[in-house]
Amino acid sequence: MRLGWTWIAACVAATWMSVSLPAAAADVASLESPGHVLSVTLSVDGDGRLDYRVDRLGDEVIAPSRLGLLLGNARALSRYLQFENAERREEDVTWEQPWGERRLVRDRYTEMTAHFVQKRSGVRVDVVFRLYDDGLGFRYAIPAQEGLDHVEIEDELTEFTIAEPASAWWIPAGEWNRYEYLYQRTPLNQVGRAHTPLTLRTDAGLHVAIHEAALVDYPGMWLTRPEGQRLRAQLAPGGAKRSLPMTTPWRSVQISDDAAGLADSNLILNLNEPNRLGDVSWFKPGKYAGVWWSLHLQTESWAAGDQHGATTANTQRYIDFAADNGLMGVLVEGWNRGWNGDWFGWGREFEFAGASEDFDLDTLSDYAKKKGVQLILHHETGCAVSRYERQLSDAMTLAEKHGVHAIKAGYVCDAGQVQRQDVEGGPIRREWHDGQWMSNHFLRVLEEAAKHRVAINSHEPIKDTGLRRTWPNWISREGARGMEYNAWGNPKNPPSHEVNLVYTRLLSGPMDYTPGVVSLKGRGDTPIPSTLARQLALYVVIYSPIQMLADLPEHYAEHPEVMPFLRAVPTDWESSQLVAGEVGEYAVMARRDRNSSAWYVGAITDEHGRQIDLPLSFLDPKRKYRAEIYRDGDDADFRSNPFAFASETRTVTAADRLQLRIAPGGGEAIRFVPLR
Question: pTM, whole model, 2 decimals?
Fold first, then answer.
């Protein structure tokens, strides 16, 4: 009797499936958020592989997704995991930020620690889930145990399988230019290797942002896409070596019906540890000017010579400008010894405790103090990071001596080219800006700076993951394309870029974007894609406790119409809320001053003009306000008429509505002053 090949193949397939496929996954633990909005369920299949899934109001948001760690010194924690038990707890507290986009932050969550043991190796591992109504965080914890004193984590198996089709806003990871790219909008199933935060909007309108929190002693997390809508964590090169016990950073997922829910979330901050520095009142949020924009315009230079910008006389000019306009500080780049024309990625000549011959630090610090202004010094490492660390104590001592309470620290070099030299004179190793060694370096800088009452503004940094809660002297950072790209023009930042930042980069924390270029001109007088009113709106839309008036003093003299707002707008807030906006399209932010009862609104749009109906319900209903409006002129357009500008005042209450008419590439800024 001859059997058909189809029948034989079917029998072989059935036999293979019966002996090779694991049993269906079984749910072993679950948790709901405090308001029963989100739920997470853990399951283990017949091979001991661990999955999680997330539902929101009964709908699946994250389909079953893998969890696990690849270890270099032990069996991978990916199979043969056996669930033991789970512990649960709840928390509901409110804590106060010493500075921030809001003073009081509510931290209300449920938490589950699920304990697992690997049957073949006996290694124990915990998975901790913390659920909020607007998102969740989860992390791995490996407790102290016999036979294993440390782990070498080569990578993670953490996945995020988005259940519904979605659009994604993202920038590439693992490339030469760190985080400084224009955001792409693509279908999720076309995402390549991406940095976080990565922002998604499902076809049904749900908004999701994937990021991480409390990145300490660990490499940053990139996202790859093995297939379809499945994203997988990939650690920055080098992996992690950790003694036990240890925990990984939190992997975070923010979930909201609308874009405002992402922008207003406190999830990343709440997943960090409380302030460990105590009183940091020596740092005062505020605005600053500085020897900076001229360097990017190439009308002055960092290096000593005829064009040197950081001279005593020139810095005094900026101090005068700052004092005349109520600014708290003056940044000076190129002040220290070691600058030359070949410093990019080669900072082996920089000295941080000595000034150049034409920069008199003693005279300038005294002059600034008499004017009520602080100097902000720039520490550019050129990525010779070990050299910088060896000078760190002396550099911070010098800053403290001269009343410097803020330092801008730079790490200019291509990604993967950070210079690490464990022993002076020894071999140089290369590190990534977001590898484990650099993750620890940034904290070493914060620790030393805190001893001298100095705050740090990092440029070319590791990503923000909310560590400003734990280290409130980490006041701001770059970590995205900033205003200097509008000076260079290769290409410039289109209007959509600044809108995208609100829903992507700014979900992680403050950004020193350096707005306020009222000349609207870059290098060679090439136009900047913005209107004049938009430059004012950026001070409210893009949050940072320090904000630069980035343009040259003479350019502000040419536009006196903008100065009342720029002098008045604060940088420290009692509360903040995104009152309207869509990812990639527009954003309207309202913030209340922490030190008065005044409110401020900033609105920006992409390349398209927009009419926005703005309810003023955020105002105190018991008061009247004088609305000081700085808006685009009726015929403004960032391409053809960027300087068209109008200002007006009117009396309003919380019951009123304002009609904002924002030009293409434009913006509007409003100050609401309570009337007696």
Answer: 0.95
